[in-house]
Amino acid sequence: MKHTIAPCSTMLLMFGISMMLASSSFAKDKPMMTRGFNTGGAALQRQTFEDAALWGANNMRVHLKPISKIPAGDYWKAFEQVENDAEKVVSNARGTGIKVILTLGSFIPGVNRDKNEYWTHPDLEQYHVEAWRRIAKRVYPYRDSVYGYDLMNEPLDRSVAPRSPAQWRELAIKITSAIREIDKDTWIIYEPGPGGTFAGFFDLEPLPDTKVIYSGHYYFPHMFTHQGIWNVKNTELTQAMTKVNIPYPLPVEDLKRDTWELSYHRLPDLNVFDKETIAKIAAPAIAFQKKYNVPIYLGEFSVIRWAPKEAGLRYLNDLIEFWESQGWSWSYHAFREYNGWSLEYADAMDWIEGMPVPPMATYLTDRAKLVLGYLKRNELPKQNIGAIETFIAEKAAANRKNESGEYAFSFATKADTSVWSATSSTTMSVKGEGTSAVLEITGTTWDSKIYRGVKLQTGTYRLSVEAGGLLTVYINKSGNWKSQDNALKWNNTPMTKADKVFTVDGGAYTIVAHIAGATGTASLRSITLSKQDK
Fold first, then answer.
1. What pLDDT digit, counting tens, does each position of 315-372 carry?
2. Which three-class secondary structure string do you get for 255-322?
3. Rounded to whole angstroms, how far apart are CA atoms 411 and 426?
4. CB 210 within 8 A of CB 22
5. Residue 452 banded pLDDT, cuts 50, 70, 90
6. Separation between Cα atoms, residue 118 and residue 124, nearest integer Å
């Protein structure tokens, strides 16, 4: 049966009655103010919540992974994984003092959610309403750890922007009704759109439910917040570094190059983008909040970590200071997700798409210190700076690096695997072999490999490996890491030792262990990279 959205006189009557009660109800029942982070798949690990609690966070907005490219008949079977993930996430949060905001960005597989074909899809209501009904039912036993259901991440129909998707408000009402059949008390979080902007607050009517938090995101202007993401593709790192350094405050002549963004925000003419402009952009939400006495939540904001350091710090501080002045809850983007937004990586451009993720910083970054200062304001904070610094020190120890540029990995413990990344076709597992342990690497395609970044001084090095199986180990200049320079190869042999001496210019490099075949399993006992000319 096809489902469509049609006006309902009964629903409109209920809306009118609810709105007569809304002001007094909201005045008595407001959500606690929270401060925290966004994250994605990392929320499936309990450690993510334990560590975020040490930062002082008391909310975590979690982006559940949507189902895509699944035949319609198999969709709800596949959706069980989303339900499983939701349950796992809220279960992981229990006992940490962190409450979870659950959100999804897309519900209809194989359809671009930013286009009109998504919003006019005949099964639009079925996909959205049933998905949230299932999620609410699954997490209901853990509802004490759920802060709110964020019904859709950045709803957008580009064909009608800068207006919100025409179907969105009524669809959100029906989703809310389905959730309320199961959970009558947990907050609903509604982003009017378009996208994450505040423009949807112009002329917005509240939803007919007295426990709704209204939300927007803030990445304005993108040319500043996203510098070095969109404009460095197909370049080397040295070239990419010439395309950043965009300042804040930002001159208007630069700002007006992004006419689409000014349009999406329905902004008046600006002379410069600075702290005062934040209030102008947020004005529709502020007016809405005052008119209807409703809570507002800033669901995402950030600036890329390689933006000019002082400009990035000033921008973040201006934003958080403004949210705080309005009494809005907020979630920084992001924690243990994309390294470019992370507070745990250096304030520098040391990565572009295609390179392995660099090691985390070995110190508290200035951006981290800034956000920590605001997170400390949370009620009953569990913030523990000493524990965070200890964690950083342990990560640094796991890197096994000294001032001579030496690295050694024994693979006998999980600590030596945590600093390595793997392609999606590769699995790593520490297994016993005789009296000691080895790292087994299993691959299913020609691209099966594990890798990690290192920073080397100029000089001569020795790469020593103890390994077995169909395996190649090599080290390359980062940015060109798919070639096989300085390679050591094994050909289905017992565990053996080999090494190679070579010279490098200094800078960022990548160590790669590659399954030398379409499929197979190989073993690693140790990799040592040592500087020879001390």
1. 999 999 999 999 999 999 999 999 999 999 988 887 777 676 777 888 899 999 999 9
2. HCCCHHHHHHCCCCCCCEECHHHHHHHHHHHHHHHHHHCCCEEEEEECCCCCCCHHHHHHHHHHHHHH
3. 16
4. yes
5. confident
6. 7
Contacts 24+ apart (CB under 8 A), 74-82: 75/109, 75/127, 76/130, 76/134, 79/131, 79/134, 82/131, 82/135
Asked whether the CA dihedral 244, 246, 247, 248 is positive or negative, the reply is negative
Side-chain half-sphere CA neighbours of 50 within 13 A: 7
Peptide bond into 165 cis (omega under 30): no
User: Locate tokens 């800033």: which residue?
Assistant: 298
Please tell me which residue, 25 or 205, carries the higher pLDDT value: 205
Q: At what angle do helices 46-55 and 385-399 cross, to 10 degrees?
A: 130
Query: CA 238, CA 242: separation in Å to the nearest integer?
Result: 7
Predicted structure pTM score: 0.77
The widest CA-to-CA distance across the chain, in whole angstroms, is 82
| Residue 514, both tokens | 């590659």
Query: 23-50 burial, b for 16+ CB within 10 Å, e for fewer?
Result: eeebeeeeeebbbbbbbbebbeebebbb
Taking phi over 0 as left and psi of -120 to 50 as alpha, with beta for the rest, 434 belongs to left
Q: Is there a cis peptide before residue 206, judged by omega within 30 degrees of 0?
A: no
Full DSSP string of 114-134: TSHHHHT-TTHHHHHHHHHHH
pLDDT in tens, 246-287: 899 887 776 666 566 677 777 656 667 888 889 989 999 999
Burial class (CB in 10 A: 0-12, 13-18, 19+), 181: exposed
The alpha carbon of 310 is separated from its chain's Cα centroid by a whole number of angstroms, namely: 23
The per-residue b/e assignment along 406-441, b for 16 or more CB within 10 angstroms, e otherwise, is bbebbbbeebbbebbebeebbebeeeeeeeebbbbb
Query: Among candidates 207, 176, 169, which has minimal Cα distance to 294?
Result: 207
CB atoms within 10 A of CB 170: 16
Q: For the chain, give me the number of helices (H) and strands (E)?
A: 15, 21
> 8-19, pLDDT tens digit by residue?
333 333 434 344
Helix (H, G, I), strand (E, B) or coil at 238: helix
Q: SS3 of 432, please?
A: strand
pLDDT, residue 258, reads: 59
Taking Cα atoms as reference points, which of 341, 315, 316 lies closest to residue 330? 316
In which residue are the tokens 């939400």 written?
A: 285
Region at 488 (left for phi over 0; alpha for psi -120 to 50; beta for the rest) = beta
Write down the residue that tokens 């295609």 correspond to: 354
Going by C-alpha positions, the residue among 152, 43, 156, 155 that lies closest to residue 99 is 43
pLDDT higher for 335 or 1? 335
Query: DSSP class of residue 110?
Result: T
